[in-house]
Amino acid sequence: MDIQSLAQTIPVEGEISLDGLDFISHGDEYLTFCLGEEHYGVEILAVKEIRCWETPTLIPNSPSYVKGVINIRGIIIPIIDLRIRFGVGEVVYEPTTVVIVLNVETEAVNRMMGFVVDAVSDVLSADEESIKPAPNFGGNIPSELVAGLINMDESVVTLLVTEQLLTLEEDSHD
Predict the structure, then answer these.
(1) pLDDT tens digits, one per residue of 77-136
(2) Structurally, how many domains does the chain consist of?
């Protein structure tokens, strides 16, 4: 095939068909991940990248859940281990352990942070009516961090409020 024939197969702007990608317009999307046996989700639009676990540079006198900082293309990113912070599961760094880097831009803040999780699971599309309010009966995770709960297969996914996650390192609770 010559270059002219190949050029004829490239769609013109406005002609692109995205068959099979209708999930984008139905509900909100969440990146789901595991902490121990628990499943959690964060808004996928806040996910900047997913990185393999690497030992960060330690910060002296920081809480045990603050693992340190990493440098991503000249930006210093604090790393929080959600298993330690939430008291969920045993802290073991396996090959599936990753850091989810979240970026939140609001009028008040533009911030990036990394969160250590056991493994990334899936992308979940959820309509507002399928998200149930979380019962307020205490626990390791503060209620202001929970956006709601949703059933996924045979488990329940706790959807987290991304903007609240970015305040975790400021909390003095350890």
Answers:
(1) 999 999 998 888 788 899 999 999 999 777 777 889 999 999 998 898 888 888 888 777
(2) 1
The residue among 137, 131, 128, 149 whose CA lies nearest residue 39 is: 149
The rounded distance, in Å, linking the Cα atoms of 170 and 65 is: 12
Q: Is the pLDDT of residue 155 over 90?
A: no
Give the least confident one: 28-32, 121-125, 142-146: 142-146
Is 63 in contact with 76 (CB distance < 8 Å)? no
- 71: domain CATH number is 2.40.50.180
Whose tokens are 């390192």? That residue is 169
Is residue 81 packed enough to be buried (19+ CB in 10 Å), middle (13-18) or exposed (0-12)? buried
Q: Judging by DSSP bridges, how do beta strands 28-35 and 119-126 pair with one another?
A: antiparallel
Report yes or no: 113 and 166 within 8 Å, Cβ to Cβ.
Answer: yes
